[in-house]
Each structure stands twice: as C-alpha cells, then as structure tokens.
Predict the 3D structure of the following.
Amino acid sequence: MRKVLKSTLLATSILFAAPAFAQDVLHVPNLSYRTGPFATSGTPLANGQLDYLNMLNERDGGINGVKLDGTECETGYNTEKGVECYEKTKGNAVLTQPWSTGITLQVLPKSHVDKIPILAPGYGFSAMQDGKTFEWAYNPPSSYWDGASILLNTISDGNLDNLKGKKVALLHLDHPYGKEPIPLMEQLAAKHGFTLLPIPVGLKEMQNQSAQWLQIRREKPDFVLMWGWGAMNGGALTEAAKTKYPMNQFLGIWWAGHDADLKLVGEAGKGYRSVSWSFPNNDAKAMQDIKKLVVDAGKSQAAPGEFDTVFYQRGVLIAAMGVEGIKVAQDKFGTKVVTAEQVRWGLENLDFSEARIKELGLDGMIPPFKTTCGNHTGHAGAWILEWDGAKFVKASDVMQADRAAIDPLVEVKAKEYAEANKPWPISTECK
C-alpha cells in the first residue's frame, strides 16, 4: 500500500511540476525566411537574432534566469504563409515578429484581439508610431518615413528646396514594403518642387531589371533611391554598375545596405550609400560574447565572414530590443515569467540611452532612442553608410528625420486606418 501511495504521489508531483517547468521559458518566435528570393537578406538577420538569444542563454541562463526560445517559422517572405506562422506560434508567444511589411499589415488587426505585441524594428507601417491608435505594434528605432526623410535630406544637403526642378527616382519593390515611402515622398515633392518618379520592380523582375534601368537611362534622374530587398538589391546594383550610373547618386534604405549585395559588384559599387540605424562593431562586449560562446563554440548557423556584416549585427540589435522589452516588463511587474500583455508595456517603455546601450554591450552599434505610450518608434535617427569597395563605412554623424513633415502625416494615416477598420480601439491611456 505504501509503495502504491508513493508511486501515486510521485506521478502527481510530476503532473503538477511539468506545467511550472514548461513556463520557465520565454517564447519569442521569429517569422523568418531562409528560403526563396529574399533568403540572402533574411538569413543573416535571423542568424544574428538567434545567436544573441543563444548567447544570453549560455552566459546568463536567459533573462533573469529564464531561458529564451527563439523558434523560427519559415515564411519564405510570403504573406499567406506569414499569417499561418503567426497563428501557429501565437499560443505561448510573449511577442511576435512578422518580418515583412505585408505580413505586419495582415497581423495588425489580429494583435489587439489576441493581445500579442508586434515587434517590427525598422519596418512595417510607418503610422505605427502612433501608440494611441496602434497600441500593440512597435517599430523602433526608426520608421520608413524617418528613413525617407533622412535620404532626401542627404541628397539635398539638408535643404529640400535644393531639389527644386530635379528628378528623384524611387526604385522600389512592388510590395507593401516598397510602397511605404511614397506618401511622404509625394508630399515633399509637391512642397519642394522636385519630381518623384516611382519605378516598381515586380517579384518576378528582381533579378532582371533591364526594363527599369532602361527607364532610368531614358529619364536621367538626378538621384535614384532604392527601396529594395533580397534578390532585388543585387539585381539593381549589378544593372547600375553595368550601365555606369553614378554610384554617388544612388542611395538606399537600410534594407538595401547589405554587404553581400555590394560584394557582387565590389569596387564598381564604390560610393553607393545607405541610410542605417545600425553599425557593426566586432569589439562591442555583446559581440565578443556571441563570438566566444556561440560562433566559436560551433553553435551558430552563420556563414564564415557573416559575423562582421551590417545585417548579422543588425539582427543582434533587433533581438536586443525584444529582450530589453521583456527585461523592462520583468522589473515593472516583479515576475520573471512575464505575459505578452506585460511585454507590451515593456516595449512601450524602452530606454536605449547611451548608458544602457553600454550596459548591454552594444557600444557604437545603435543611436539612443526611447519609446513611450504615444510614440512606438522612438526615432533614433540614422547614419549614412558608404560602400568603400570592400565594406560599409560611416559617412555621416547620426542624422534626424524631419518631424514637422512626418508627424502630421502619421496622424492622418493612423486616423484613416482606424476609420477604414471600424470598430478600431483607440487607447485612452496615452495623454
């Protein structure tokens, strides 16, 4: 009888212990893409994110002793598959990372129903800046409209009136991502008297852009701004080099500043510039810990040489933002195993000050920024990086976007979105 009772008690204790043990993991799923025409861009970003999480697990046992699970769900950058991945992973997630503007737009109305925060660093719908309207969506440290403003400030030497009478081509992916900068650019073109020439690149045209570059040769724009991704970037850079378009007049958004794309043209790409809210620093403490505990230990999927690149180290920063949101939530609510609703509060109260960036071991890799209830972007600003023929180097100090141009547009587009998606909840907490 005692043996039976002992066995029963043991089985019961295991049953009750299992859920507690399962809870001692924080799930931060990543809707990644390591396959398809966007894999060259998506893979290093995914590797950087995963390696940062693994480094924290190895070095610190996770966050405050709770392990991190960065399980990936492959989307191939396909919106339908992305939504399927969101549904598949949302059950125990404390946040979701759509990793596509198209997927973000589809998940956006689901997030406030499911009460899962969307973390979309440097991508997604720019109007997500408005925390009152988009309570569950975050796009730190800079939005696409921030990037567009900085690019226009760069080519106009800080005064958009200098562009009057000039022609600016926007070579963009024919996808929600590629269309993001158009509303702001159209508004600024009308105000400052320059011509905006949108040139879309279809998903099937990414590697053969002869028609687009024929149009560029015919139109002779003063500048070409690229809103490209994946195979589109390499295709555009190859065509630009082939047609000898002046590289100092060719600039891209941060997703069009990938080392591997520029290495396709090498020296011929010298002078090409990209706006970027991140910069690689191999000597940063976090990077050294990743190298020692993950890369050198054979626990990384990163290819040789990938560790040094802009995209890999940007992936590290993206993971760090999510982790910091979790940490802030843990401190606020006094619990280690935080919920998605608590992490939402954490992402709303990120403070990447110079001091905190140093504490995290990310020195020199990202400009300071701070999110609030009403501002879910933070507006870190960005550097201009220039390809020197072999690597990207800083070509400017941190530059800031024109808030006077962007903020009113955010208000208009956020209101339009809420009206088009009635009934849409508007937060009453943000003052």
About this structure: Confidence is low (pLDDT under 50) at residues 1-23. DSSP finds 15 helices and 13 strands in the chain.
